[in-house]
Design brief:
heterodimer, A: alpha+beta, eleven-stranded mixed sheet, two-stranded antiparallel ribbon, B: alpha/beta, Rossmann fold, four-stranded antiparallel sheet, 7 helices, 29% strand, globular
């Protein structure tokens, strides 16, 4: 008979006790992994609005409402970004890439359409847009006469096809193709996309824009910044400082601040909830392990009586607990994986803040719903899974070692004398 | 004749209660000795000190020439493993293990070569205690007498110099008790083991070559 035979027989013989330990450990791991996964998916969902505009920071400037909401206007309250400030922002430490854009609303009593003039470079520019082509040809900024891309949903709603003409401020543009921008994750959503220069030309000729701003063909009203994540806070602060009180700087930070309540629920609450559950489960685990060893007090004394040393007995207990907790941990991971697979996604309904919504929500006559369903897949958090497993095993084994030291005394006679 | 056990000025106190007082005696090797006394006389406490499962308040115990009081915990465990066999009144078998595994428990951590030899010896010992047909039965599947016979086989697996038996028939009926005792005597004789039986039963004590009468923690009579 080997120690492993004894170990196996103990685990089988005391099936109920083994099952309690297994369930305790499974619970610890399952709770920690599942709650962390849901929490992370919730956070991911809340970051989607920014990820969908393909930038770390979106810079705008608050402006005035045009005297008349007709034709091409800046989305309220967006203003022209001063060219010299744009240049300074581009040179800020931590800014990897910047893409200028012109975002316009084309308003008339019977219709609304949004227009985005995009730069020829960058993931937030024409290459990012063209990568989501559904039909037709990609947008070529050098082709004349200038062509446009339209959003797939917008095209379907307005029965527009590739080759049709679309009219903007009296100018007709041939539709070269349709794109699926909601799926792109690289570019801000609009109905119509034009090369930046053409959008700048249109804006510079719009009476309701030039009535408010000295907009020229080299200006923009939207700036997308890709930033080294380590500099996100410093760049955000610097841009806000440059543009003053009217700065509208959207970033992960601003969205978190704006959605503080929602984020609190998804992040902090889940962390606290996970921690409380995990602590309770760990306490249960430690107690069940210690109780299980306590029940074997007399057996342990017998082992001493037949010549087993204390270290040997404690190593035997540790080995038993390691195997039980290891298997229990794996069971917990399996349950967590099943749970995560079954739940699938986190869905959050969120009203988009105006600066990241393409719709003129302030207009009473528009019926655009800014509420957006944010859907993020729940994924198995590998690092957390590994840590939860290790923590559960360590807790169980350390409880076993402590209980072993407590129960296996140098002079075990009194346990043997008890009948 | 050499002594298997030598006790010198041995005392044991529990808080202020003196259970054993200044005992000095020897137990001859290869013979059966009995420590006799009424309940509460201190005989089981004496056995706990002889086996090294408890420590004395003062005095010394030597088993086969090895003084226990100077040994570390692991050295003491080695002495128990190699030189002392213990049979308890309550059998104290491990309930999860079958008879064969219980007998092999003291050598569970030996290397494989040794284990193979000890497996043969364990089977032989179980045969000798007439349990060759119950090797794979757990304690719950055995009668009290059978459990005590497994415990005897376990106590002999390392061929100890000294076999200590604490009321070995105390939990058995008279007939089974007699069988167990004669087995203990027979096997210890065969293996040349010194048998020390703690008992309150005068009939058992009569069978011993040496008797120590304990009263109130002191040796009141010593008969060779």
């Amino acid at each position: 008979m080997s120690r492993f035979h004894y170990l196996k027989q103990e685990l089988i013989y005391r099936l109920g006790r083994s099952a309690v330990t297994l369930v305790s450990i499974s619970l610890v791991v399952f709770m920690a992994v599942t709650l962390t996964a849901i929490s992370r998916a919730s956070s991911d969902a809340l970051r989607l609005p920014l990820e969908n505009v393909g930038a770390d920071i979106v810079v705008q400037l608050s402006g005035d409402i045009p005297k008349k909401l007709e034709g091409l206007v800046f989305p309220h309250p967006t203003a022209q970004l001063p060219a010299n400030t744009v240049e300074k922002i581009r040179k800020l430490p931590g800014v990897i890439r910047s893409t200028g854009a012109v975002f316009l609303w084309d308003l008339s009593p019977n219709k609304f359409q949004s227009l985005l003039g995009v730069d020829s470079k960058g993931t937030s520019g024409i290459p990012g847009l063209n990568s989501q082509l559904i039909s037709g040809n990609p947008l070529d900024p050098d082709i004349l006469p200038v062509e446009a891309l339209v959003d797939g949903d917008f095209a379907a709603k307005n029965k527009l096809n590739v080759g049709d003409k679309i009219e903007l401020q009296g100018q007709n543009y041939r539709i070269s193709g349709t794109v699926d921008t909601p799926k792109s994750g690289n570019i801000m959503r609009a109905d119509i996309y034009l090369p930046l220069a053409e959008a700048q030309l249109l804006a510079s000729k719009s009476p309701w824009i030039i009535d408010l701003y000295p907009f020229t063909q080299s200006d923009v009203n939207l700036l997308f910044l890709e930033v080294d994540q380590r500099n996100l806070v410093s760049v955000t602060s610097a841009v806000e400082k440059m543009l003053g009180e009217k700065a509208i700087v959207s970033s992960e930070i601003s969205i978190q601040e704006e959605l503080e309540d929602l984020m609190f629920i998804s992040d902090q609450m889940s962390v606290i909830f996970t921690a409380v559950i995990a602590l309770l489960a760990l306490a249960l685990l430690a107690r069940s392990t210690a109780t299980a060893i306590g029940e074997r007090r007399k057996d342990l004394a017998v082992l001493q009586a037949v010549g087993w040393t204390r270290p040997l007995i404690i190593s035997q207990l540790s080995l038993e607990t390691t195997i039980l907790s290891g298997v229990g941990g794996l069971l917990g991971l399996l349950l967590a994986w099943l749970g995560i697979t079954l739940i699938g996604d986190v869905e959050l309904a969120m009203e988009l803040s105006w600066e990241i919504s393409p719709s003129p929500h302030f207009l009473p006559e528009t019926d655009f719903d800014r509420t957006r369903m944010l859907v993020a897949p729940i994924q198995m958090p590998l690092l957390t899974s590994a840590l939860a497993w290790i923590l559960a095993v360590l807790t169980a084994v350390s409880s076993a070692v402590l209980a072993g030291f407590k129960m296996v005394r140098p002079h075990p006679w009194r346990w043997l004398a008890e009948e | 004749m050499s002594n298997a056990v030598q006790v010198t000025n041995l005392s044991k106190q529990f808080n202020t209660v003196s259970v054993l007082r200044d005992l000095s005696f020897t137990i001859p090797a290869g013979k059966m000795s009995a420590i006799v006394g009424r309940s509460g006389s201190g005989k089981s406490t004496l056995l706990s000190l002889l086996s090294g499962l408890d420590s004395p308040s003062s005095g010394t115990v030597s088993i086969d020439g090895v003084e226990l009081s100077g040994l570390s915990e692991s050295e003491l465990a080695k002495v128990r493993r190699e030189r002392i066999g213990i049979v308890f009144q309550g059998f104290h078998l491990i309930p999860s293990l079958d008879a064969l595994a219980n007998v092999l428990l003291p050598v569970a951590f030996e290397d494989k070569t040794m284990q193979a030899e000890q497996l043969d010896l364990a089977k032989r010992l179980l045969d000798e205690v007439e349990l060759g047909h119950r090797l794979n039965h757990r304690p719950a599947q055995l009668s009290g007498g059978e459990q005590q016979r497994v415990a005897i086989a376990r106590s002999l697996i390392q061929r100890p110099q000294v076999l200590l038996a604490d009321e070995p028939t105390g939990n058995l009926d008279e007939s089974t008790g007699k069988t167990v005792l004669s087995l203990l005597r027979k096997i210890s004789r065969e293996y040349g083991t010194t048998l020390v039986v703690v008992t309150h039963d005068a009939q058992i004590a009569q069978q011993a070559e040496k008797r120590l009468q304990l009263s109130n923690g002191e040796i009141s009579d010593e008969t060779n």
